[in-house]
Structure formats: C-alpha cells, structure tokens
From TrEMBL:
InterPro entries: RraA/RraA-like, RraA/RraA-like_sf. The keyword Isomerase does not apply. The keyword Signal applies. Residues 1-34 form the signal peptide. It comes from the Bacteria. This is RraA family protein. Keywords: Signal.
Amino acid sequence: MKKISIKNQFMNKNLQIVLTTLFALACFSLSAQVAASPDYIKQLTSDWQGERFDDGRPHVPDALLQRLKKIQMEEAWGYLRGKGYNNQYDGDWEILHPNKVMTGRALTAQYMPLRKDYKQMVKMKGADENRDTIGGSNSWPIEILRPGDVYVADGYGRVIDGTLIGSNLGTAIYNNSKNGVIFDGGVRDVAGLMTIEGFNGWWRGQDPSYLQEEMLTSINTPIRIGRATVLPGDAVLANSYGVVFIPSHLVADLVLSSEIVALRDIFGFQRLRENTYTPGQIDTKWTDEIKADFADWLKKYPDEKLPMTRKDLNDHLSADRN
C-alpha cells in the first residue's frame, strides 16, 4: 500500500508539473500577442454594456462624442474625481491646433526603448497576426484605426529619436480615423502635419530626427499617458487645457451631468445680471428657494436649446432628488 501511495504521489506531481507548464505556455502565448484579444479588452472594460467593435473596444456613440466636445475640462475632471477616478487627466502639451477640440475613442499603443531580441519577437508575432513586416511597426496601430478613433501612444516622453509620425503617417492616420493623435512622445515634420485638413495632435515636442532605438510593444492594452491611465475604448476629450480619458461606461452620465452644470451656470449668470440674488447666494450651496427658481426656469427653457432631450433632463433631475 505504501509503494502504491508513493507511485500515485509521483504521478500526481508529474501531472501537476505538466499542467503548470501548459498553463505557463498558454499565458506566454497570450501575453506575446502584439494586439490584445477581443476577450481581454472585454474583461478590461466589463462595465461597458453597449455595442463594441469587433476588436472588443467599446463603441461609444458618435452623437455622444459630439456632445462631449462642449464639456469643460474642469467639469469632466470634477465628475471623474467624484466617481473615484483620480488619474485620468494630463496637461503640458504641444498642440497642433490649440483652438480646436478633439473627441474620440482611444486606440492605444505602447512603445519602449529598443531591445533587439524583444523587437524580433514582436516582429514574429506581428507576422503571425498578418501585419506588414516590411515597414516599421509604428504603422501597425495606424492600419487598424476606425472613423472616430484617437491614436493614443505611450512613447515614454521621448522626443529626440522618438518621433512616432511625420506627415506621411499623419495623412494615413487622418485618412483612417478622420481624427488625430495623443502622443506621450514626439513628432517630426510639423509643417507637413499642419497641411492635413482636419488632423490635430497633442504631443510632448517636435524634432527633425526620425524614430530609432524605440520599438512598438503592444496595441490596445492599458497604457500610461503622463499621469493618466488609459484603456482601449476610453473616450478622449482634448482641448487647449489638456487631455482627459473617460472610462467608456461613464461617458453618457458625465456628459449629461456636465450639461446640467452648464445650464445651472446660464441660470446663475442671468439671475446675477438681474440682481435677483447676490454672488454669495449663487456661488454656494443653493437654498430651496433658488432650487425651485431653477426648476421653474428649466421648464420654460426652449427645448431646441437644450443639449439633451427633455426626458433625459427630467430623468436625471428626478434621480438626483431621490
């Protein structure tokens, strides 16, 4: 009986080793992918309940992204902080067209300093994924951009020899996405990029050098942009005051809440001009009298001027009261 027990223990141990090895190989195969799998992206963004692209990213509606353009940076930042998302904003950018606002859905890419054995593995995996291995791998994220996407790249702040695009790739980006880029890194040929109508970009700097000693490591995985964490499919709001990355499942409520804040401001400014209330009364927690006045003011506000539907407005206000 003792010999059988020892034999069984030996067999169980070998089986455990085999299973552990197979699991490790499976994990290595998954982690060695250049582009994240749709299943992985769905796990990352499991709070999103709407439609998705076939790559797994949340499909935040275009109409919502258009409304997002009118949201003030402070309002978006404040809403996210209130929800416990404290690391979604970054500033200090060079901007191609500072007077323009850009919104879209994040397609993420990560770059690292060149290590030739790792670069070779990435190239082999890219070939397995039917990617173009003749040119540079920095074209791979560009090739899969969809209309409304924003190409968001972690270039670890490198500008000299870290120029992720010039005017040729910039043209391809706009052709595929009809949008622009957010680069924690550099670009070259800004004069050429300026000629691409509709294209915009936020980056750390520009330099005439070309990309070298730097390599692409992943597409559509979580990345860091300055002090912000970005997931694929995040909604991007970029303007002259910085960039904020909004978790997809919070976009609709953030937009609606911020629009109501804007209506409160319009009401407050009007009442101050009319000398109905003092600045102190408006710039603090409102009394029941002011709240009632605001509710009555909203009822008379023209539907065609509302940024949201009357039903959405009433439903949101009703939820706040409850």
